[in-house]
Amino acid sequence: MSTVSVIIATRDRPEMLREAIAAVAGQAFDGEIEIIVVYDQSAPDTSLQASEGTRRVRVISNSRTPGLAGARNSGILAGTGDYVAFCDDDDYWKPGKLAAQVKRMETDSGVEFVTCGISVQYDGVTHDRPLGRDIVTFDELLRDRHTELHPSTFLMRRSAAITGFGLVDEEVPGGFGEDYEFLLRAAKSHSIAHVREVLAVVRWGGQSFFFRRWQTMSDGLSCLLDRFPEFETTPAGSARIRGQIAFANAALKNRRIALLWAVSAFRRNPLELRAPLAIAVAAGVLSPDRVMVELHKRGRGI
Are 103 and 40 in contact (CB under 8 A)? Predict the structure, then answer.
């Protein structure tokens, strides 16, 4: 019988955390589930610890670099399961998630990493975001981040995370884009398997620790371009990242820097829409917050 260690990194969201724990514990999954709640930069609530049948909740503190990456790695290393899964403390799973993903993993012994479709909730509106494919390759991830491959959908072999493609990178500036960096590294080792069904609910909103952190966004994405020179083999993918960096700098009122990044995006892909958005924000024609709100209403991000 398989055991899954589910890592829920948390910080100052007690109500949402309890919802996430309940959804994981309520999975229609015959195997054992070890829920490891990792408190990051906040006091742990040991009252959450519990054990009932094949469900167990453990509470630990982040013993590594402060931040989401360090907290997730603390959980991976503390886990005892055959598989490791992530669930953000402001998200929750539908009952069939683990069963579907573990079945996919066990059907193909070569698979190391499985994701699934998501529902995005924002301002009382829900948008389903299925991804119409069963496999996502490294080259495809360079072209498109695929928002559907959200960290709350990640399930992987614990051995692969420890001795294969490796732990979450704790050195990505501000932790922005560490999930994308992790996906790229995993996909470079072996293509990502995907369950098309929408099985995780992702809640977007002001509770996000990255909301309006434009400098963190710029630094994190710039790091990705440095880490993966392969982006330059995929003009559309490189333009997408550069357009995002341009937008972040426009929001910071770094107009000259924003323009330079926007131009570099245009040169790689004249159809990259983030570049004109960044220019409009830099010129004061659009508000960055307004752009983000309108995108989120449609279940999209920048």
Answer: no
**Could you tell me what percentage of the chain is helix, strand and coil, using 3-state DSSP and rounding each to the nearest 5?**
45, 20, 35
DSSP code for 191: P
Amino acid at 198: V
What are the tens digits of pLDDT across the range 138-170?
Answer: 999 999 999 999 999 999 999 999 999 999 999
Which residues is 35 bridged to in the sheet? 6, 57
pTM, 2 dp = 0.93
CATH for 3-203, options being 3.40.50.10320, 3.40.50.620, 2.70.150.10, 3.90.550.10: 3.90.550.10
pLDDT in tens, 251-296: 999 999 999 999 999 999 999 999 999 999 999 999 998 998 888 8
